[in-house]
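Why do we bother with a discrete structure alphabet at all? Because it lets us treat a fold like text: something you can write down, compare, and reason about line by line. To make this less abstract, here is a complete entry for DUF2634 domain-containing protein. Read it the way you would read a sentence in a foreign language you are learning: slowly, and without expecting to understand everything at once.
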Amino acid sequence: MANLFPVSEENTWTDVTEPEGLEIGHAVFGRSWRFDFEAGEFVMSPTRKMTLVDEKEAWVLWCEKAIRTTRYRHVIYSRDYGSELEDLIGSGSRALQESEIRRMVSEALLADARTQGVDRFVFDWEGEACRFSCRITNIRDEAETLESVVI
């Protein structure tokens, strides 16, 4: 009977290699595909191939997605991933809500080893909706401004 798992040079198991990207401490900066959150789809090149982003932009996309994903709703994500901003609006004064946005966003983003800091929050209220922006800094001391809205 033929071997179900034949052994040859082509299919010999080797040690797992580190993910592609620069490793700093326990954080791995890798690449990703560009995603348009407004359109809700990946960005395609004119030749209909998904567009790659560099390591910094991949981290920024991760941060934005972590804020937009509701924590505990999807079993595929760990309990550390996502935010609880969805339940926030209408629960207390604006000052309390702004304080909770700071706490929840910082908690969600600092769960990633690549994120060093979250600060400089700016809030803009439009009725019951709150637009906010904050500065995020990674462990390479690269900073970016992240914007989101809580409805």
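What the structure line is telling us, in plain words: The chain has two helices and nine strands. The mean pLDDT is 83.
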